[in-house]
Amino acid sequence: MEQFNDLLNDLVVAFTDEFWKWVLIPLLAVLSLYFTVRLGAVQVRLVPEMFRTLVSPAGVAPDGKKAISSFQAFSISAAARVGTGNIVGVAGAIAVGGPGAVLWMWLMGLLVGAASFVECTLAQIYKTRERTGYRGGPAYYMTHGLGARWAGVLYAVTIIVTFSLVFNSVQANTISGAVTASVETVGATAPGWLAPAVGLLLVAVTAMVIFGGVRRIAHVTQTLVPFMALVYIVMGLIVVALNVDAIPAVFTQIVQSAFGLREFAGAALGTVIVEGVRRGMFSNEAGLGSAPNAAATASVTHPVKQGLTQTLGVYFDTLIVCSTTAFIILVSNPTYGEERGPVLTQEALQGVLGTWALHALTFVLLLLAFSSVLGNYYYGEANMGFLSEDPRKLAGFKIVFLLAAFLGAIGSVEIVWSLAETAMGFMALVNLLAIAPLCGVVALLLKDYVGQRKQGLDPVFTRDRLPELRGVQCWEPGEEPVRR
Q1: pTM for this structure?
Q2: Most buried by CB count within 10 Å: which residue of 3, 104, 119, 457?
Q3: Residue 471 domain-assigned?
Q4: Which pLDDT score, from 0 to 100, does residue 124 have?
Q5: Which parts of the chain have pLDDT scores under 50?
Q6: How far apart, in whole angstroms, are the C-alpha atoms of residue 446 and residue 453?
């Protein structure tokens, strides 16, 4: 049975590698370049606006309570984005592709910011209203924007299985594994009951959050995300400060390896590029269609506002958090090789800061994984709402979600992880094919936004400003509060 699982895993990995290399990465790069040209490099040109829109105040939801703010929606998506991929995934990319993978991760992060802007702006314009605020995402803009509900159903089912079940199990497994590793670091043997106990505790804490609805998820993530990022970044800055003399050599290695001028771990140039781009996308999720589910929840006065805010999330993830991992590893002069990926970050921290750093990293991993669990849950909830408004089905989904978390904490997820990467690639393919023809809608919205800014206004959008748009469910005149 073990040999069969190994064979199946190898086949899935081989297929996924080829699919990403020859289909998904070229498509993402070409479409991101198209979006960049069509929208005038919006992801670079309007960076100052991204910080301004991040602090936009929220309006009032239909139930009379405060709606989800722009920053809270940013936090929900960041909770899912900023996960173990920022530590383990980046380490894996460096282990296989060498330092050059980091440069391709940076470059692709800047380019795919355009794709993130498009998909998150679309999520806002085609969102729907619910009692506590708004809901939307790829399934909604496929239905209302493209008029293709079948594509929306396909996407909704895929993201529920991939994020809310599989990735949820993976994150739970990471939490359990991190606790076990921390116990074994001090020389103790992890008892057999530890993993089930961690699983039950995770289920209990998660249940307290998700049964409180999207508002409670937003409140928890807006506190958790900045805190965990700050802790990890401070650790990274300490490592870099203690090895500041190595920084020039690290940058040289990154550039030389990125363009094949120097070989690392036997990585060919194609491997360097693929690993950097793939792990970057896996981490920042630009073009994948996941972040738009969170973007749609925000109560803002113009769809472009949240598109800009979520693009900032791509930069936060790739240029700050992932780069922290990269520099922690590279200043330690690591030994490269595919099998080295899972331990590079831990070894680098321990070598510079001592054994206590492993426990600190365990704490960071716990926060990262738990925040991802919450983000992954909301992605599933938003798409369950698309498939059915029956509250009993949503309650059933919550139970299945918590069960997946417990099973992930006590089980092995290698083959599940491999299948999830394949499903994630399929999700991205469906989403990219949907947002490409809708880019014209985003171009009109951006023109409206920029025009109002030039007049010195805080942009406000209502559907009568662009009456040619079809399928818009919200944005009636007078619906959104005007904030000056």
Answers
A1: 0.90
A2: 119
A3: no
A4: 97
A5: 481-484
A6: 11
